[in-house]
Amino acid sequence: VYNMWQAQNEKLKLLNSIDALTGIPNRHGLDVVFETYDSPESLAHVACYMVTITNLKEINQTMGHVVGDQMLKDFSGILESVGDAFGVVGRNGGNEFLMIVNHGSHDTMEYFIESLNQQLKEYNEEHSNAPIQIQYAYILNEEAHAEYFSTLLTETYNKLHP
Q: What's the rounded Cα separation, in Å, for the pair 35 and 30?
């Protein structure tokens, strides 16, 4: 009986960690990842990438939430397909997404951004009525020297939303 409850509890934890709309980790799921960076040493070479879909509100207002939700699903699929080779991706909430890279450098991040932009260009050519427009920022902790993951997140957020 204990094993059955334990298995159900694990399943509930997993479900609480996955964004229901997009199928990628949600903020709760990302928090579990963030907790693994529990020392300045573990954060030393981490890069944090944050991206927001800038035209989601407009799409929701003009074309409806069904189209906006599809845009979120499509973007998260693109982000995951490109980002999985670089690190952990997830939905931070609303129109905001994150990627955490263990060994981030400017070259790595620029290659990722170039790859993501290429995928978005192809997507937008096929979806010209509702193209995905993004704004992003990233921070390398070897330059920021954050001692806590929350500090790195805040600095990335502030860079994205000055």
A: 9
How far from the centroid of its chain's Cα atoms is residue 105's Cα? 18
Q: Is the separation of the CB atoms in 79 and 116 below 8 Å?
A: yes
Q: Give the whole-angstrom CA distance, residue 78 versus residue 14.
A: 22
* Contact of 49 with 136, CB cutoff 8 Å: yes
Are the C-beta atoms of residues 89 and 135 closer than 8 Å to each other?
A: no
- Show the DSSP H helices in 56-148 as ranges: 56-63, 65-83, 106-126, 141-144
119-122: long-range contacts at Cβ-Cβ below 8 A with a sequence spacing of 24 or more?
A: 119/78, 119/81, 119/82, 120/78
Sheet of 96-101: strand order equals: 88-93, 96-101, 47-53, 134-140
Backbone dihedral angles phi then psi of residue 98, each to the nearest 5 degrees: -130, 155
DSSP string, 31-42: HHHHTT--SHHH
Q: Could you read off the pLDDT of 40-81 as tens digits, one per residue?
A: 999 999 999 999 999 999 999 999 999 999 999 999 999 999
Please tell me the pTM assigned to this model. Answer: 0.89
